[in-house]
Amino acid sequence: VQLVESGGGLVQPGGSLRLSCAASGFTFSSYAMRWYRQAPGKERELVAVITSAGGSTNYADSVKGRFTISRDNAKNTVYLQMNSLKPEDTAVYYCSVFRPGAGGSWGQGTQVTVSS
After folding, report:
1. What is the dihedral of CA 46, 52, 54, 58, to 10 degrees?
2. In this predicted model, what pLDDT tens digit does every residue of 53-66 receive, in sequence order?
3. Which of 44, 81, 94, 115 is close enough to 68 for a disulfide, judged by CB 3.0 to 4.6 Å?
């Protein structure tokens, strides 16, 4: 299993970023996908979840209305569109998949920094 995140960077408050996570090594279209984040000194936090076919999503209260998770099963890729970014969104963002019997798998993460 390989999960490779990209799209992070430095953005000003109020700006936008789109994260991507390219997946390989498993049947991507069969599993829900998740985005997590971890800020310095804080525990890892679940940000968003999308079901295997993309028909249902769920978000942390802190990002509702600002972030959108989506997926393209033809490209084995999950996305996180982040709008109206705030300094408190600064964190390393990870994508993850949990497969029953195989456990959880994580990418290496991509840094998002929101600062003026």
Report:
1. -20
2. 989 999 999 999 99
3. 81
Token pair of 31 as six digits: 């599993």
pLDDT digits (tens, 9 = 90+) for 72-114: 999 999 999 999 999 999 999 999 999 998 899 999 999 999 9
CA torsion through residues 46, 41, 19, 27, sign: negative
Q: What's residue 102's pLDDT?
A: 87
Cα separation, 100 vs 19, whole angstroms: 26
The first and second tokens of residue 32, run together, are: 């829900």
Residues 6+ apart with CB under 8 A from 58: 48, 49
Contact 35, 95 (CB under 8 A): yes
Q: Average pLDDT, stretch 33-52?
A: 97
